[in-house]
Amino acid sequence: MPLTLADVYAARARIAGIADRTPLVPSPFMERATGREFLMKMELMQPIGAFKLRGAVSAVMALPEGVGGVTCCSTGNHGRGVAFAARARGMRAVICMSELVPQAKVDGIRALGADVRIVGRSQDEAMRESGRLCETEGLVEISPFDDPHVIAGQGTIGLELIEARPDLHTILVPLSGGGLAAGIALAAKTAKPDIRVIGISMDRGAAMHESLRAGRPVEVQEHSSLADSLGGGIGLENKLSFPLCRDLLDGTVLVTEDEIRHAMQVTFFEDRIVAEGASVVGQAALLSGKLPVPEGLVATILTGRNVDMRVFAHIMNGQDVTIGDLEVKGVPYGA
Predict the structure, then answer these.
(1) HEC states along 70-99?
(2) Which residues pair with 299 in a beta bridge?
(3) Whether the model pTM is above 0.90
(4) Per-residue confidence of the chain (335 residues) as pLDDT tens digits?
(5) What DSSP assignment string belongs to 128-187?
(6) Host H or E run for residue 33
(7) Who's near 33: CB < 8 A, 6+ residues apart?
(8) Bridge partner list, 196
(9) Distance in angstroms (rounded) separating the CA atoms of residues 292 and 310
């Protein structure tokens, strides 16, 4: 393995005081729906509203003195984390994003003092621009998922889950580039080898899912999604998150936009939580029946709350929403 549990503990020390432990709370509704105790790791309570702060702070704080600035490609939350961490160290940050990233996330990153570059319509195009900035301007690139310090930072969530509930049976992890899933699986399975870790993504351009099926990193066509944070490629030269996900995940599940919409409504109306579509794919997988109900205690990660509130309001009110080329029919909750 390219990473060990010791790396995760080292990341915990680096992020202490900035991206600290988040609550693990029950969902009575999901418990009734599944017949199993269901817990939600509240990463949307991080200062930037997303778990990505852990990996970004871990990576930026590990940089040596004298680094002039950092760059990354992002679908939103990683860029926000890098911008937050760079500001804490007094560094320049340039965040590269595609045209598919919601404006609310772009605005949130700019508010942290970062320079945002909008490049093309795919994560791969944004990734190439980030690499160009490293060559031409001497910036250091912080990968959103294929960086050892980033993966170790996300792995601290796995440590907290096992420490809080050693009896945990299954962890449902939103799956994009694989940094979160790889880190959590590494930490949790090292501490408890028989625990199951399942990656959940949307069915519109799920790059890690398709790469695992192919047995190698592949490119996918990107689409607009309610789970926009799960968009983007994993990089054809992926060296860390792909092999870790390949070796450690116990499976992957894809959910539809309608299933994500319903899970967002459930999380709001039943648990009183505003969550991004990417945050609730675990609930969507169970409520849709695509994932059989696990035998024991289940936990998922509510990864972020940085949703466009106008879109969110339409979804909660049962109205149709259009995001890019995506049209999701509105259904009132409980109808």
Answers:
(1) EEEECCCHHHHHHHHHHHHHCCEEEEEECC
(2) 39, 171
(3) yes
(4) 579 999 999 999 999 999 989 999 999 999 999 999 999 999 999 999 999 999 999 999 999 998 989 999 988 889 999 999 999 999 999 999 988 888 888 999 999 999 999 998 887 788 889 989 999 999 999 999 999 999 999 999 999 999 999 999 999 999 999 999 999 999 999 999 999 999 999 999 999 999 999 999 999 988 899 999 998 889 899 999 999 999 999 999 999 999 999 999 999 999 999 999 999 999 999 999 999 999 999 999 999 999 999 999 999 999 999 988 899 999 999 98
(5) HHHHHHHHHH-PEE--SSS-HHHHHHHHHHHHHHHHH-TT--EEEEE-SSSHHHHHHHHH
(6) helix 28-34
(7) 286, 287
(8) 170
(9) 33
For residue 203, give both structure tokens.
């069915």
Q: Which two tokens stand for residue 332?
A: 């009132």
